[in-house]
Amino acid sequence: MADTIQLLPDHIANQIAAGEVIQRPASAVKELLENAVDAGATEIRLLVKEAGKSLIQVIDNGKGMNETDARLCFERHATSKIRQIDDLFHINTMGFRGEALASIAAVAQVELKTRRSQDELGTYLEMENSMVVRQEPCATATGTSIAMKNLFFNVPARRNFLKSNAAEMRHIIDEFTRVAMAFPHIFFSLSHNDQQVFHLDKGSLKQRIVQLLGNSYLSRLVPVQEQTDYLNIQGFIGKPDAAKKTRGDQYFFVNNRFIRSAYLNHAVMQAFQDLIPADSFPLYVLFIDLNPEQIDVNVHPTKQEIKFEDEKIVYAFVQAAVKHALAQFSITPTLEFDIDAGIQQSDAVAKPFTDEHRQAASSSELYQAFSKSREGRLFRDRRIWRFSRWSCTRQSDAILERFF
Ligand code: ADP
Ligand code: MG
Question: Are residues 354 and 306 in contact, defined by beta-carbon separation less than 8 angstroms?
Fold first, then answer.
């Protein structure tokens, strides 16, 4: 009887695998921008045509690649970012799977130009169906330019799934915004059909938020800043009067990686409860930084979902940080540090880290606020806030001095 099982040729296997990583033009935009960030670029330019359907090009001034790496980078599982599985839990780059460029080369025509600063000449490479069709030395600026043309030209069924240019462009702008938001010290620009959409000078996070989300937020951002031994939270929330009727201007970054988390979103929404109408959405741009060993970033092909070792404690910290910020700016009428009992008893709070860290952690400000919940509850009495706005502020400062 004839054998019925066949091994798929590489380019078909790559096309299938690409389906997970590159679903639409915006997915490629994300991967290429992240590679440019990982390459240490300080200037990153994104050019798209026809909402990325005919061209997506990212030009960076990062470290570039030598000739061998320029060929290798398109191989599946080709990565310079991890060597062994353990490295995944110490990762501080955006990439690590070594799948993006292989996937892109499987579903688009790719032109790469790259040069390292120490090399006189760079490398030009053209790929089609995962194969090199042209390679030659070239004169080019330090850094890398990757142009992908005619996305899904060889997978017409998938091309048919693409939405209108307006819809695909919306997705591209979303991905661009997420990366640009996380790295305000990097210059970014975006042009669509040769028209400039964004030109983002290097600056502070506050400047970047306003550049990306609009001037209307300029005087309506409240800083969030908490440092504990377990994690740091910093960023901005919008004042309640800046809340919008549509979800959208809401961003969580964990170790500079944009993530989606309905659970952490809930923590922020809880903190805003009673301050905004039920059907509106406050702005938040929050950066949560914690030991990479406390998270698993390898649970999702596009890395937009991550797993926390202890999700509850992160939830509690996020909520407390937002409440604290609102209280400090005397926006919230009450200070509610009624942290869920389960969390107070959770290992992360009850015995943070190793024993040698316990002392330091238990003296940290947020931890104290949690563990002194009985005292915290005293201040839940709303009467205390029936002062003028001015004395309210003074009151809150006094209380916060005690608790934070
Ligand atoms: P990953 O980012 O997960 O390592 P990619 O397929 O995105 O996988 O990239 C493969 C490798 O190619 C990277 O690890 C990096 O060494 C190299 N590379 C990709 N893009 C760039 C770039 N813009 N500048 C320099 N090197 C790059
Ligand atoms: Mg990558």
Answer: no
Q: Classify the phi-psi angles of 59: left when phi > 0, otherwise alpha if psi is within -120 to 50, otherwise beta.
A: beta
| Token pair recorded at residue 57 | 């090009």
Q: Which of 73, 125, 130 to mutate to test the pocket of ligand 1 (most atoms within 8 A of CB)?
A: 73
Of 303, 283, 273, the closest CA to residue 235 belongs to 283
Fold of 209-331: Ribosomal Protein S5; domain 2 (3.30.230)
Residue 267's Cβ-count burial label (10 Å; 0-12, 13-18, 19+) is buried
Q: pLDDT-based confidence at 366, cuts 50/70/90?
A: low
Three-state secondary structure call for residue 56: strand
- What the block records as the tokens of 350 is 């009850």
Position 299 scores a pLDDT of 79
Predicted confidence (pLDDT) per residue in 227-248, tens digit: 998 999 999 999 999 999 988 8
Residue reference for tokens 């994104």: 46
Same CATH topology for 10-203 and 209-331: the answer is no
What pTM does this model have? 0.83
Q: How far is the CA of 78 from the centre of ligand 2 (A)?
A: 10
Please give the CATH architecture assigned to the domain spanning 10-203. Answer: 2-Layer Sandwich (3.30)
* E strand map for 87-177: 109-115, 122-128, 131-138, 143-149
Dist. CA 181 → ligand 2 center (Å): 18
Name the pairing type of β-strands 221-227 and 231-238: antiparallel
Angle (CA) 366-368-369 rounded to 5° is 65
| Mode of pairing for the β-strands spanning 257-259 and 231-238 | unpaired
Instruction: State the DSSP code for 63.
Output: -
Residue 91 CB–ligand 1 contact under 6 Å: no
Instruction: Return d(Cα 369, Cα 170) in angstroms, integer.
Output: 42
Q: Is the CB of 207 inside a 6 Å radius of any atom of ligand 1?
A: no
Annotated domain spans of the chain: 10-203, 209-331, 341-403
Of 35, 56, 36, nearest to 46 by C-alpha is 56
- What are the backbone dihedrals phi and psi of residue 28, each rounded to the nearest 5 degrees, phi first? -65, -40
